[in-house]
Amino acid sequence: MSANGRIRAAYMQQFAKDELFPLLARNPALEVAAARNAAELRAILPGAELLIANNRFYDEEVGRVVLEHGKDLRWIQYWTAGIERGIRFGMPRGIPVCAAPGVKGPTVAEHAMLLLLASFRRFRAIEQARTKRKWIRDQMHETARTLEGATLAIVGFGAIGQEIARKAKAFDMRVITVTRAGRAGPTVDQAVARDQMHAVLPQADAVVLCLPVEPDTIDLFGDQAFARMKPDALLINVGRGELVDEAALARALAAGRIGGAALDVTVVEPLPKDSPLWGFDNVLISPHCAGCGKDGSERFNAIFAENLRRYRAGEPLVGAIDWEKIADGV
């Protein structure tokens, strides 16, 4: 805490044009400084009680800086839903670490529905035909599909999964959820535990992945999962690239074992130019932009304000994650 009684905070700033930092800077309880890289973070971290972290920013060099120079930290608050890179590259133990659940839920869910609709309604073929000034109405009769009555399997049912389910029901889809413990909800027609995932995959016309990366979710979708999917089913990934064995996905697409894929995330980002996934006409790729949009800053600021109040009052924090158990493989 600074001499004036305000909490000293270091903020990882991702974008040059940043809407969140002015909101944080106006908070009368904070004395906040921003860093755009590891070197800048090293300069502002000593003496900081709070680190406002960014999962995408958090690399090996940042992890070293935080461990070596974050001796005064008492709380780490991510402004992203994911914290897996912090777990991978290291954080001080024994202090609360919070994610920001729901900050990008509506936005990512909208993007998932965009990918689903664009794939089912064959928008890529429409756009390719437009560039050639071709009218392909007859072909669309043969290939376009409707969401009404189709089954969507949502793997992961946190804030993003719940938003996807709510939006899917508005399109009259049947919703199956796959979670660690078989979590259901008012927009869910069937819920199964993750160890039963392969049993329900044959029902799904589309599968959307929106769960975090943990030791038991890496390569969750590989040859065995693709073998259980319908030959015209669509795989959508708005979670993390590591959830999918990309070599197995390429094999499934090449063999026609699934109908297509729509990926907002990949194992390596940007997706390497030599990846075979670029070459499939039935694959949509967006540049990890599902969560992009200005509204996330306002949502995070509301969550952060509540957590700041709780922190100062000694109350449990929203979004706290027992990351040490994950790091230790428990």
Which features would summarize this protein structure in a list?
five-stranded parallel beta sheet, 330 residues, 13 helices, 16% strand, elongated, Rossmann fold, 12 strands, seven-stranded parallel beta sheet, 2 domains, alpha/beta
Explain the overall architecture:
This protein is an alpha/beta fold and 330 residues long. It has 2 domains: 7-103 and 293-327, NAD(P)-binding Rossmann-like Domain (Rossmann fold, 3-Layer(aba) Sandwich); 105-285, 3-Layer(aba) Sandwich (Rossmann fold), CATH 3.40.50. It is 35% helix and 16% strand. The protein is built from 13 helices and 12 strands. A 7-stranded parallel sheet has the order 8-7-6-9-10-11-12, covered by helices on one side. α4 links the parallel β4 (75-78) and β5 (97-98). α2 packs parallel to α3 (60-69) and α5 (105-120) crosses α8 (159-170). The longest helix is centred in the C-terminal third of the chain and has 19 residues, at 295-313. The mean pLDDT is 94.
List the helices and strands and how they pair.
Elements: E1 7-12, H1 20-25, E2 30-35, H2 38-44, E3 50-53, H3 60-69, E4 75-78, H4 84-89, E5 97-98, H5 105-120, H6 123-131, H7 137-143, E6 151-155, H8 159-170, E7 174-179, E8 190-193, H9 197-200, E9 206-209, H10 223-228, E10 234-237, H11 246-255, E11 260-263, E12 283-285, H12 295-313, H13 323-327
Parallel strand pairs: 1-2, 1-3, 3-4, 4-5, 6-7, 6-9, 7-8, 9-10, 10-11, 11-12
